[in-house]
Design brief:
By secondary structure, this protein is of the alpha+beta class. It has helices at 11-36, 45-56, 66-80, 82-85, 87-107, 117-137, 145-152, 160-179, 181-203, 218-229, 259-269; strands spanning 208-214, 233-239, 246-255, 274-279. The chain folds into two domains: 12-203, no CATH class; 208-279, Alpha-Beta Plaits. The chain is elongated, with a radius of gyration of 24 Å.
């Protein structure tokens, strides 16, 4: 049997990826220089450490700044995690980090957009989240914390998520001593806003839901979903845990805005149908469209 060859990335797709990584790096740099730094607010991860070290470094050592720190601190993790993250991801990440450093230096002398901490927290977090989300969505990263977590959790009894959480708790604890407890609280808020925004950018605005429907009238329910919602369904074979009888289970994917209509369609056919709605991270293929019918 001949192994299937991987399709090479087209030049247009490659250029578009680089553009969005560059744009994401620019947005992140803008958030850091024009919102966060002037108000002594930090982010988590390597960016947060770089901001703290930049703040406490004496002015006589001007060559040690955020741009050099974020590159110097990230590169060892990228190199060490090469086998875990792959060549393409590593190159894209290094490109994003270097671009972030360059944009940060270019924006360094610009006047901040606001000196109001709450505005800096909200808008700085949003812009940072959009920037980082664009970089991640296009195959890169600007923070080696998760890569460090992947390496260390193979030897420690923690998951990557737990390691990142502990790491950031430590960073915000240090920020409380360096900038004061109030600024540390603003930093936590900015990090949370950025974190949620990253999720939105990565998953897209057209959030989808997966529905599992158990009904004795599965044929009628499936036909109603197709005719009234324009959504195809998949029939799965199940077995009742109490009766041990075989049942057909309907699986369907709809947009967030179609969930209410889906419930109404199913209820019209079978008021006793059992419906489970689940979040999905991404939906591709099978001619799935987000248009509302």
């Amino acid at each position: 049997m001949v192994a299937k060859q991987h399709k090479r990335e087209s030049l247009l797709h490659f250029i578009m990826r680089l553009f969005f990584i560059l744009f994401g790096s620019f947005l992140a740099a803008m958030s850091i220089e024009l919102f966060l730094i002037p108000n002594k607010i930090i982010d988590g991860g390597i960016i947060g450490i770089s901001l703290i070290l930049d703040y406490i470094t004496p002015e006589s050592l001007s060559f040690i700044n955020f741009a050099t720190l974020v590159v110097a601190l990230n590169l060892p993790f990228m190199y060490s995690g090469y086998k875990q993250i792959g060549k393409t991801f590593m190159i894209s990440s290094i490109f994003a980090i270097v671009a972030l450093a360059i944009f940060e230096r270019l924006l360094h002398n610009f006047h901040p957009f606001t000196n109001q901490p709450i505005l800096a927290t909200v808008f700085g977090g949003l812009i940072l989240g959009v920037g980082v989300g664009l970089v991640i969505r296009n195959g890169g990263s600007m923070d080696g914390t998760e890569i460090l977590g992947i390496i260390l959790t193979k030897r420690l009894p923690f998951s990557v998520g737990e390691f990142v959480m502990f790491f950031n708790i430590f960073i915000f604890g240090v920020a409380a001593f360096v900038f004061g407890p109030e600024q540390a609280m603003y930093s936590v808020m900015a990090y949370y806003i950025a974190f949620k925004t990253i999720d939105t950018v990565i998953q897209g605005l057209d959030e989808t839901k997966a529905a599992i429907i158990v009904s004795d009238y599965y044929e009628e329910v499936s036909d109603a979903i197709l005719s009234r919602l324009g959504r195809g369904t998949t029939k799965l074979i199940g077995k009742g845990g109490y009766t041990d009888e075989q049942k057909e289970v309907i699986y369907a994917v709809v947009t967030r805005l179609e969930v209410t209509k889906l419930k109404a369609v199913v209820h019209d056919v079978d008021p006793n149908a059992f419906i489970t709605i689940m979040n999905t991270h991404e939906t591709k293929g099978a001619k799935f469209k987000s248009a509302i019918h």
